[in-house]
Amino acid sequence: MPTAPAPYKVIANDFTAKIKSGELKPGDKLPSTRQIADQYSVSMNTAYRAMSLLHDRELITGQPGRGTYVAQPSTQ
Prior knowledge:
By secondary structure, the protein is mainly α. It has helices spanning about 5-20, 35-40, 45-55; strands at about 60-65, 65-70. It has a two-stranded antiparallel ribbon. A hairpin with a 3-residue loop joins strand 1 (about 60-65) and strand 2. Helix 1 crosses helix 3 and helix 2 crosses helix 3. The chain is globular, with a radius of gyration of 12 Å. This is Regulatory protein, gntR family.
C-alpha cells in the first residue's frame, strides 16, 4: 500500500512545479516560511524543511534580511 509523501515534499514539489512551469520566474519573491506554513496548514518546521529542499535543488536563493527568491536557472 503506497504511503502519502511527507508534507514538506508536497510543498517543495508544488513550488518546483510552479517554477518549472514559469508561474514563478527567476527573481520572484516567495512567501515567508510563516505564510507557507499558514497556507499549507503545516508547522513552521515543515515549511522550513520544504524551503530547505528547494534550496538544495538550487531552485531558490535566500537573501538575509530581504527574503527568499526564485534562483536564476543554472547554466549546466
